[in-house]
Specification:
Low-confidence stretches: 116-121
CATH class: Alpha Beta
Structural class: alpha+beta
CATH architecture: 2-Layer Sandwich
Helix content: 25-40%
Number of helices: 3
Mean pLDDT: 85
Number of strands: 6
Order of helices and strands: HEEEEHEEH
Largest sheet: 6 strands, antiparallel
Distance between the termini: 50 Å
Amino acid sequence: MAVDAALREKVEADILARGEVKPQDMMGTVSYFVRGRMFAFWVADGIVAKLSDKVRQAFLDQQVGALFQGPQGRGTDDWTRLNLQNKDDLEPTLAAVKAAYEHARGLAERRPRSKAKKRRR
């Protein structure tokens, strides 16, 4: 089931209101980056966010998200698909996206990504 357009607009507005966010079309969807690190992207039935272990577990315990399964059915360690089916899902989704943004921004501050790859000798 596709995400309700009004819910998606609210989540997108919240994401884009944050500093340094850059949306990018990627893999047939819109992904969001901060300081070169992707922190969220849309899927057909919701949004997927990269969360720290502690935050991800809290969302899983509250049953407002599930571990993201990629197209090949493999799970990922830190990507969480968030439920966004009705207005009751909006508040926890916004909280998760905020946490993902802060997590990615913090990682970028500690370990900035270099555009130049180091050559191995």
